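Data deposition worksheet. Section B asks for the primary sequence of the deposited chain exactly as it was used as input, without tags or linkers unless they were present during the calculation. Section C holds the resulting structure in token form. Section D is free text for depositor observations; keep each observation to a single sentence. Incomplete worksheets are returned to the depositor.
Section A, Depositor: J.P.
Section B:
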Amino acid sequence: MYQGLVFLHLVGVLVFAIAHGVSIFAAFRVRGERDPKVVAAILGLSKIAVGLLYVGLLLLGIGGLGAAWSAGTLLAPWAIASYVVLVVVLGVMYALATPYYVKVRELVGDGTAAVDPVELERMLATRRPEILAGVGAIGLLVLVWLMVYRPG
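Section C:
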């Protein structure tokens, strides 16, 4: 059973990583576009990727929690700290990304309506992708550190 949970966890990690990569690419790529159709297409791709990202995260969580339970480490201090880090990173990234990208999607719609180019330029001139990447990278480093060194 433990091996099955570890496998589920690894499949979740793989799906999460691939989908996250698409979403990260889209976040950086969309800033260089000014054609509403292209912006809408990139954000549409990102929205699909984020949906898959959450599926991967769910698999990762089920497999990881199950494996931790099987190994008797579910309530270890380092494991609890990793849950907290994960929730904080997810919360911060959601709060920073979702409202912003919803507004950009609302502005461009499906890309066929007229969009004020000045407003589009203003919306896309952002360092949000770097901030999101920084939050994610720091969170990942902390999670890896917790899993490797298992403090406490």
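Section D:
The two ends are 27 Å apart (CA to CA).
Helices lie at 2-29, 36-71, 77-108, 117-124, 128-149.
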